């Protein structure tokens, strides 16, 4: 049996659903208003997708190629908090760089549906790819140093490191090409198949 791998990545602004479809129905895009989730889910049910399919940033394209393999994907979403890549979500527009600390209260009241699954998992290998802004909020929910055994890999820009004795840092220049390449390489090392 292969090693249990968790990948934690922040959401991407690019979604697989066109914003215009959502705006036409709602008059605007859902954002941090998580308390209206049930209403939005009814109105946008045909536009919902699993998180791994909803987000369409370059790193998500890499992760989709490894779907069904050895990795469990968790997305740190500005709207939802911690969600599984398999969780069905609505299209939205929210960015933590535009948020304040009150977003933490919303996640605790309405969000973080897969936080317990992440922190209680027995991961042999953890890959974290969060921007500096998202890492700051993530660390308010989870101590990343306690997620994995001896294999904790953090893909980050320089200056975004924190003190984890068991972490291997993969510093990137900030471009998505660098992070895609490192993410693909790490997954190929740990997964039994190479897409």
Task: Describe this structure as you would to a colleague.
The chain is of the alpha/beta class and 195 residues long. 34% of the residues lie in helices and 23% in strands. Strand 3 and strand 4 (81-84) form a beta hairpin.
Q: What overall form do the CA principal axes indicate?
A: globular
What is the CA-atom radius of gyration, in angstroms? 16 Å
Characterize the largest beta sheet: strand count, sense, and whether it forms a barrel. 6 strands, mixed
Give the class from helix and strand content and strand pairing: alpha/beta
End-to-end gap: 19 Å
Give the ordered list of helices and strands. Answer: EHHEHHEEEHHEHEEH
Mean pLDDT: 89
Total of helices: 8
How are the strands of the largest sheet arranged?
4-3-1-6-7-8
How many extended strands?
8
- Outline the low-pLDDT stretches: none
Strand content: 15-25%
Amount of helix: 25-40%
Give the key terms.
alpha/beta; about 200 residues; globular
Write the layout of secondary structure elements.
Layout: E1 5-10, H1 19-26, H2 37-43, E2 49-50, H3 51-54, H4 58-65, E3 71-77, E4 81-84, E5 88-89, H5 102-110, H6 115-120, E6 123-129, H7 132-141, E7 148-157, E8 167-172, H8 176-190
Parallel strand pairs: 1-3, 1-6, 6-7, 7-8
Antiparallel strand pairs: 2-5, 3-4
In short:
With 195 residues, this protein is an alpha/beta fold. It is 34% helix and 23% strand. The chain is globular and about 45 Å long.
């Amino acid at each position: 049996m292969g090693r249990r791998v968790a990948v934690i990545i922040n959401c991407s602004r690019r979604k697989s659903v066109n914003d215009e479809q959502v705006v036409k129905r709602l008059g605007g895009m859902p954002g941090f208003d998580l308390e209206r989730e049930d209403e939005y889910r009814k109105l946008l049910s045909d536009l919902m997708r699993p998180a791994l399919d909803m987000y369409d940033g370059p790193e998500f394209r890499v992760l989709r190629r490894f779907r069904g393999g050895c990795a469990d994907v968790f997305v740190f979403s500005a709207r939802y908090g911690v969600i599984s890549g398999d969780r069905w979500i609505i299209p939205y527009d929210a960015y933590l760089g535009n948020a304040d600390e009150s977003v933490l209260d919303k996640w605790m009241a309405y969000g973080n549906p897969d936080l317990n699954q992440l922190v209680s998992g027995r991961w042999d290998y953890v890959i974290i790819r969060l921007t500096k802004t998202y890492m700051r909020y993530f660390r308010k929910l989870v101590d990343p140093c306690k997620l994995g055994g001896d294999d904790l890999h953090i893909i980050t820009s320089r200056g975004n490191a924190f003190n984890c004795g068991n972490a291997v840092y993969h510093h990137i220049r900030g471009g998505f090409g660098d992070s895609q390449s490192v993410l693909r390489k790490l997954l190929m090392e740990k997964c039994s198949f190479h897409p």
